[in-house]
Specification:
The structure holds 2 protein chains of 2 kinds.
Chain A (H helix, E strand, L loop, with lengths): L21 H13 L2 H28 L5 H5 L3 H5 L2 H23 L1 H8 L3 H35 L13 H26 L2 H19 L4 H10 L1 H5 L14 H25 L3
Chain B lengths: L1 E10 L2 E11 L3 E6 L6 H8 L7 E6 L10 H4 E4 L11 H11 L4 H10 L15 H13 L5 E5 L7 H16 L3 E6 L2 H7 L2 E6 L2 E7 H6 L5 E5 L3 H10 L3 E4 L21 E5 L3 H10 L6 E5 L3 H9 L13
Parallel strand pairs in B: 3-7, 3-8, 5-6, 6-7
Antiparallel strand pairs in B: 1-2, 1-4, 8-9, 10-12, 10-13, 11-12
The chains are: A mainly alpha, B alpha/beta.
Amino acid sequence: MTGTTIARTGPDHRAAFRSSTVADVLRSEWTKLRSVRSTFWALTVTVVLGIGLGALISAVTAHGYARFSPSEKLSWDPTGVSAAGMYIAQLAIAVLGVLCISSEYSSGMIRTSLIVVPKRGRILAAKSLVFAAVTFVVGEVTIFVAFFVGQALISGHAPTAALGDPGVARAVAGGGLYLAALAVLSVAAGTLLRRPAAAITCIVALLFVLPGIAQALPDSWRNPVTEFWPTQAGSQLTSVYHSAHTLQAWPGFGVMCLFVAIVYAIAWTLLDRRDA
Amino acid sequence: MIEARGLVKRYGSTVAVNDLSFSIRPGMVTGFLGPNGAGKTTTMRMILGLDAPTQGSVTVGGRSYRDLPAPMHEVGALLDATAVHGGRRARDHLLCLAQSNGIPRSRVDEVLRTVGLEGVARRRVKGFSLGMGQRLGIASALLGDPAVLIFDEPVNGLDPDGIHWVRTLMRSLAAEGRTVLVSSHLMSEMALTADHLLVIGKGRLIADTSVDEFVRSSSQHSVHVRSPQAADLAARCREAGATVRAGSTSPVAAAPVVGPDAGTDPDVIEITGMDSAEVGKLAAAHGITLFELIPVRASLEEAFMELTQDSVEYQAAGATR
């Protein structure tokens, strides 16, 4: 072993190496993402919950449709029912997004990553982009399958939706976009907070706990909070019908993207300035 | 070539690194020595752009680390071998590092062979022993075929065979004209590996010298004598102005003999302040019989302890020499 050649080209043949590019970092982050088991499990959970839970809820509520009151029948939203599983499945995406950077902090790998890519913004950009792209693809596949499975289960028991109906195609396809924005948000949160537990807690609070607490506020407070709460505003993109005190699809998603951009900018600044 | 000018790092009111200036030249192994908490790792982190200096600057090949266009080709570093994601396979770990700098896959297999990990390339890293982890860390440092190599305590956790391998590797990397900076708290290790020494204590530069010069400049030269008339000789030497103390039964100071006889032999004395020729002449002049007359050169360990005794951060009570 001691006799092995270490040099490939020798230190004098430096032209053999080119500068590191953003594309290189993207490739590296893709390898990082696909080479840990948590990615496989989190995405499996997303798919299984998104489709399975959606199918279950579709079947159960469609069977109860006959006993619905007229006003309940009026607000029947077959698209929303078939996509109901995504509400829980999004948690798996958020956790994976937080972990893909905070696990580097907890293991110490972040130091190696920053030594090989000292332009730190590239690491955050590449991680976010790769994870958002993977999430988008998995999310779109899941939501479309959930939609068709859900409609098939509803069919015969209650009115169904078709992709050609007004707003339905946008609401279904919007599921993947919403998840992609959430993916970027969780990577940024993981970068900002560095500790997996802290970052996951914040994301859960943002998605589930705080919107729940907001319901207890007086109307004058609750309505604007519900309207502009980033994840709730963003989820309007996935809704066919918009209830009172909610934004329309694209303005709502715009509010969420603005929030994601602000958190991302803070994360980028801190990553760049903090000692690693 | 690594150059630091007036490097300072403060954490709150603690000064970890205090006005360090040095240049580390290519073609030799530079040992970076200091007691625990002296600021070795902090200095290495500043060289690698992980920590921003409070004051001063450090460059690698004339550039600040963050401005290097092909970082892995300029610098290969191993700071902490345990800082890897345990769930990743060894080959994937190296692959993601290589890809980040556009280094081809074939190079990953090459370095795996170099460090002898090709057999476990597909194993997940969390099952690795400390020694295998060190080899993986060294492999990642070699990936870019870098001109500068920085290793923080690379022999930690290695078995004797592994230590020998690392030593040979460092020497051959330096022989190829690369700049090699190795930190260690094992002075004996540095004596065998390093050509040049940077010694720091409490964040300050204490010595920037060759290994030979470092040992030579130490005042710890003594003469080990065994004689049936040791007490007589001791008195004569003291008259001549030398310092005499009861000697260890072994002339190797770094490895004192332990056991019932250790240090208790009344025939053995240790003389400082005279060289062996002077002691020999003195003994002859007074008709004193000598069984052993051995000049004892200070080991690197002793020279280091002497130099840094004032700057040890964490000292056991009563451990002052």
